[in-house]
Amino acid sequence: MEQLQVSKRTIQNEFVYLKKVADLNGYMIRVSYGKGYFLEVFNQDKFNHFLEQMTVGEAITNKEQLISEILSCLLSTSQNYVTTSQLADLLGISRSSLSTEMETVSNYLGSYSLQLERKSHYGVRIIGDSKDIRRLMLDLYLKGDKPFKEIVDQCAGNFDEYERLVEDYIRLNQIRIGYYEFQMLIGWLKVFVLFSKRRVTVSKLMHQTSGLIDYEINQEQLEQVLLCLQEQFEISVTTVDVAEFRAFIQSNFQKKGQIENRRELKSFKQDLIAFFTEMDLRNHTDYSQDKEFLEQITTHLSFLLDRIDQKIIYKNPLLLELCIRYPLVFDIVLKFSSFLQVKFGYEISNDELGFIAVHFLNHTEKEKNKRINQYERIAVICTTGGGVSNLIRTQILGIFPNANVKAFSFWEEVDLKEFQPNLVFSVVPLKQAPNVPTIYIKELLSNRDIKNIRQVLCNQKIEQRKSAPIDVSHDYLELLKPTLFSVETAKNYDELIKKMALKMITQGYGDDGFQKNVDQRERYMSTVYNHGIAMPHPIEMKGRKSAIAVAVVKPELNVGTHKVRLVFMVCLAKDDFHYYSGISNGLFQLMQDESKISDIYNTSELQNIGEFYNEVSHR
């Protein structure tokens, strides 16, 4: 304990953890009576990997957690001061370790205009305005800090009644509010309960604010919630509390219809239409023709720019998933953000870009449905008219539920012509194919075959009066190329992906601007994601041929607060864009499976990656 400068409790806690994970990580902790504990390693590879994970980044995370736990103790105490001995015992660390962290705590509090007051023979406490302390408490709660969240939720108890009161208010006053804003409001009320019960942590109160902006929102009804809390929890609600609550509501709620009086929507909308028209010409998209999309994005952006003017920022819990699973759409949104910055002078945060991306995704899904629904009469041509043709017809109906799908034998050419299909599926070569899109298929379609058909028809614009066959027999597993697989030792992530991009160009996959576009995408927003996975790709996808380059980085590379272990660089030709969703969804599922990541990383074989993708494609 003296050597490590930690308390006995800390040693005990760490020992429990090390014993618990021992078997999974290739070692055992044994005891020799009269001598003490010793380590027995039975799987050197697993043990070495376990040691590799104990990095500086992990120590930083532990330090951040310790700071949060110190703040939790100080914010939730019912005493005026907390002694350092009490804090050390509560946290399970030595007084010397606690002392070294208190300066960091003090600096962190300073960012909230708060102070850490130290008083001899008494201890320490947080002092500052009530609104600043509640702001800190709310941030800790919404961040999901486990110790503090448990304290707040336990103090607040069952909050269903108060959530219902807030929902009634929102409905009656036609308030525009998202789920995240709603959680912020409920979080504020829960934190208010804890704060009011522990009001001793505050040494000075803010004076009541005057001259608040009136948005014509009837707040009296919502303020009844505070009175209910006062009665239920036996706490006092001051005029200062009411004023702060009003300000919080005004900064987070928008009333429907309010926007028209704030911004010249017509001019604003015309600027957006001009951008989308130009983008549609370059990318063969239809954003400028979607009136519903234009209305929704205009309204969303008007509220967003107003929020930015008021310095109100929202966090987006879906940001990471949106970036990974929908890279093509998110890349368009990143370009859109550059337009907003140049045209209107607003720099949009990544979290807010995630909210914007949802509108783009909605448009994309509508376009997919439109492409599927355009096929009203579908012919399935088989070797016979028996059970196999009925099976294929049923499977095709699963893709086109609103279409008239009819099966024909290969010799029923006259009947086929009279049916006038606008899409044909055939298991045999056609001598006189109708002038419509034709897809050649196997007699027994697997789930992967059906998925490939759906992706091709949903994601590609296909000429309707053309009889050229459409190939759906390939899938993205074929894009994993042995010549693009490598184990790399790298000191810099940017240099690594430049090297990989150049290799894709020299092997005939990437276009001349591929390396530059990969670098530009990285400058917009990092493509290093969770659990050591990275997916670099160009901001403009226009490859000569399609491929996925894979690099296993050993030792793993630190990039900011993330580590890089496996790099998947994607290059797609225009006709293969439909593969993107399968590739990105596969990587997203891989990120949820740390043991599989470790298997791939440790074996460093392309075959293991292919096997994982094969498994995912059959789910």
Automatic annotation (TrEMBL):
<keyword id="KW-0804">Transcription</keyword>
<dbReference type="Pfam" id="PF00359">
    <property type="entry name" value="PTS_EIIA_2"/>
</dbReference>
<keyword id="KW-0677">Repeat</keyword>
<dbReference type="InterPro" id="IPR011608">
    <property type="entry name" value="PRD"/>
</dbReference>
<feature type="domain" description="PRD">
    <location>
        <begin position="260"/>
        <end position="370"/>
    </location>
</feature>
<protein>
    <submittedName>
        <fullName>PTS system iia component</fullName>
    </submittedName>
</protein>
<dbReference type="InterPro" id="IPR036634">
    <property type="entry name" value="PRD_sf"/>
</dbReference>
<dbReference type="Pfam" id="PF00874">
    <property type="entry name" value="PRD"/>
</dbReference>
<dbReference type="InterPro" id="IPR016152">
    <property type="entry name" value="PTrfase/Anion_transptr"/>
</dbReference>
<dbReference type="GO" id="GO:0006355">
    <property type="term" value="P:regulation of DNA-templated transcription"/>
</dbReference>
<feature type="domain" description="PTS EIIA type-2">
    <location>
        <begin position="477"/>
        <end position="616"/>
    </location>
</feature>
<dbReference type="InterPro" id="IPR050661">
    <property type="entry name" value="BglG_antiterminators"/>
</dbReference>
<dbReference type="InterPro" id="IPR007737">
    <property type="entry name" value="Mga_HTH"/>
</dbReference>
<keyword id="KW-0010">Activator</keyword>
<dbReference type="Pfam" id="PF05043">
    <property type="entry name" value="Mga"/>
</dbReference>
<keyword id="KW-0805">Transcription regulation</keyword>
<dbReference type="InterPro" id="IPR002178">
    <property type="entry name" value="PTS_EIIA_type-2_dom"/>
</dbReference>
